[in-house]
Amino acid sequence: RPRVLYWFRTDLRLHDSPALHAALELDPECFCPVFTWDPHYVYRTRAGPNRWQFLIDSLTHLSHALTALHPSQTLLVLRGPPLALLAALLAAHRITHLAFEPDPDPRAAARDARVRALAQARGVALVNGDRPGRTLWDPAALVAANAGRPTTSLAQLRRAAAALAAAAEPPRPLARPERLPPPPPERPSPADLERADPDVAAGRAPDEGLGADVNAALRARPERSYAGGAAGPRADFAVPALEELGFAAGAATTPLRGGEGEALARLGAVAGDAAFAARFAKPATAPTALGFGPEENGTTGLSPYLHFGCLGVREFWWRVQGVVEEYEGRGKREGGGAAKATRPPESLAGQLLFREMYFAAQAALGERFGRTVGNDIVRFVPWHLPSKLAGPNGDGSGLAPADAPGPDDDADAYRVDSPQAHAWFRRWRAGTTGFPWIDALMRQLRRDGWVHHLGRHALACFLTRGGCYVDWERGARVFEELLLDHEPACNAGNWMWLSCTAFESRFFRCYSPVAFPKRWDREGRFVKRWVPELGGFPERFVYEPWNAPAEVQRKAGCAIRGDGLSPVEDDAGDGLQSYPEPMFDFAERRDVCIRAMKKAYRVGLFGNDERVLDGSWRRLFDDEAEGPTEGE
Ligand code: FAD
Question: How many domains does the chain have?
Fold first, then answer.
């Protein structure tokens, strides 16, 4: 009988899991569920403590769920590089079938190709299920149905989906298993695993040419995930603790807890409110909501659960479709016809279609999707703080080490072509721009790891074409570190959208940091929650406290002063708290940016243009508006 190794990755659930379903259909004699604690993600992927904590929660929940289906089952977390560990396990357990959910992320897909080759070389069969698990449709098949091009609109996406199947609807979700086979009689022995990676066996961090730890600056202590060997410090294959990653106690501040149970409970609450789920209209939900769902006029908050695969996307889709049908049917039965559900793009189904659109756009371009250079759908704009990848050879080569950012900076390499723009970027990142709306959103992102979609709009527009004129790649890197739901395809795609470099072109429509939030929250509840220094400001000044007369500031207990970078002594003699002065005149900056965008559109280069790759684009931009970035 088959002996199955099930490799969990971004599918931390038991329901609606095509690969798991197919693996169990084999009726295996043993079933070995593993998760590999991959050094690539520990050291090379920008991720703060909130996202690690969410992963730890999700793995812990999954392990308990496995035990509930068979008392001898737990999730085996193996620390080390996946290829080496899998090779050791396939041999040690005489595995006949290796099962996993395909991951369309470009780097993961390249890793999976190596794993497939390994399995084939060992005569081990691969099991991936009869449909994709991470998305509604297979992104590669969508690209093929879109004539090999990235999908850049919902219309294209829907046409491609319709071409894939008789019905444009995605397949139905699969049921959760009711039992599991036993695990292999023996756990993998340290000797088996020692052969997998000599560094891990010796208690050192794996050395796969990983380079510098991009998260080093976030850690309070040295990272020690691999110090106890592949089976962990207690040799029990348990889920690692946050402290092992070197984060300080209490570093994870998000109130959102990971796990399939939490995901299904939240989906249940969404589906349980028929009017909310069926009449969902994204643009009408409030970026100033203090919570999720109907009570706060918020959105669902389900994105982190989709990201980690705690929630099956087809489960989400069909639960909502069920509610919509019931809701509209009820209207008809009651003779009304008034009960009309919303439709894409603004409905909940529409939101999931946007996710598909970005996955399929990324599938067409691979890693190039995440940057400007070499990306043929993204417009070239000579932003400030460009990535070093945009250097003379287009791949970052030929740049002097002296161009590397300082210790204060993001580990990502970019050129500081404008000290002014650099200061703005650092203030944006720290939530000290002096614009309360922007700072509140940034502080929410840092503490909770989540921000409403329109809040993300405001942050991204402000950093790029609607204020700072800083490269969208800088903002995307910061989101990568801080978002719980960070999804390479959705993050890069939305940054391109908001910077009007792809997907969207109405760059003259900017978000004012004063007028925009007032539409939802005139009294500034949201700002006061996240920027408590401003708690005493009257409604009139809460979004523009710099306009408050000194007397109002004194009464509010907070003075508007300082540059937002160097701390102001709170006891500046007056007993008042401090909140920084705004870093620029927004209306002025908006006009400068719009002029610069007009110019970039007129020049009309895209990321794959030779002139972008060889640097000769500079000759096409004069010094009007922002002009070309300086330097090499
Ligand atoms: P809901 O409105 O309840 O939507 C339901 C689901 O639909 C979401 O969970 C999400 O999976 C999907 N969805 C909704 N809107 C979008 C969208 N515009 N693009 C892609 N999927 C969408 N979303 C991510 O999942 N990961 C990211 O890294 C990410 N980065 C973003 C960066 C920027 C600059 C912007 C403007 C948006 C980004 N988004 C990202 C999209 C969107 O903001 C979030 O998916 C959404 O806010 C999550 O909240 P929710 O689950 O309550 O959404």
Answer: 3
* DSSP 3-state percent helix, strand, coil across the chain (nearest 5): 45, 5, 50
Question: What are the pLDDT digits (tens) for 272-295?
Answer: 999 999 999 999 999 999 999 988
Are residues 240 and 295 both part of a single domain? no
Whole-model pTM over 0.85:
yes
Is 299 assigned to a binding site? yes
* Residue 522 CA, ligand 1 centroid: distance in Å: 25
- Residues 446, 316: one domain? no
CA-nearest residue for atom 52, ligand 1, is: 301
Structural domain boundaries, residue 46: 3-131+182-204+212-217+231-245
In angstroms, the CA 499 to CA 381 distance is 9
10 Å Cβ neighbour count for 189? Answer: 11
CA 456 / ligand 1 centre spacing (Å): 9
List the single range of 30-39, 68-77, 170-179, 202-211 with lowest mean pLDDT: 202-211
Geometric angle at alpha carbon 619, from 613 and 620, rounded to 5°: 90
State yes or no: pLDDT of 404 exceeds 50.
no
Residue 302 labeled ligand binder: yes
Contacting residues for 85 by C-beta, under 8 A, at least 6 apart: 34, 36, 78, 193, 196, 197, 230
Q: Which atom of ligand 1 is nearest to the CA of 302?
A: 51
Locate 141 and state its tokens: 């098949």
Q: What element of type H or E holds 472?
A: helix 472-482
Backbone torsion region of residue 394, taken as left when φ is above 0, otherwise alpha when ψ lies between -120 and 50, otherwise beta: left
Here the tokens at position 467 are 């204020």
User: Quick one: three-class SS letters along 607-632?
Assistant: CCCHHHHCCHHHHHCCCCCCCCCCCC
Task: Tell me how far the alpha carbon of residue 493 is from its chain's centroid.
Answer: 11
Per DSSP, helices labelled H in 310-449 are 313-333, 348-365, 419-430, 436-448
Residues across the chain: 632
Q: Ligand 1 pocket check: which of 453, 478, 511 to mutate, most ligand atoms within 8 Å of Cβ?
A: 453
pLDDT digit string (tens) for 110-169? 999 999 999 999 999 999 999 999 999 999 999 999 999 999 999 999 999 999 876 668
What pLDDT sits at residue 336? 64
- Say which CATH number the domain at 571 has: 1.10.579.10
CA dist 478 and 128 (Å) reads: 33
Q: How far is it, in rounded angstroms, from Cα 308 to Cα 16?
A: 14
In this structure, are 459 and 360 located in the same domain? no
Atom of ligand 1 nearest to the CA of 352: 7
CA of 99 to the centre of ligand 1 (A): 29
Q: Is 434 annotated as a binding-site member? A: no
485 and 609 assigned to the same domain: yes
Phi/psi of residue 53, nearest 5 degrees = -65, -40
Cβ-based neighbours of 170, under 8 Å, separated by 6 or more: 136, 137, 161, 314, 317
User: pLDDT tens-digit profile of 461-504?
Assistant: 999 999 999 999 999 999 999 999 999 999 999 999 999 999 99
Residue type, position 415, single letter? R
Residue 352 C-alpha to ligand 1 middle, in angstroms?
A: 9
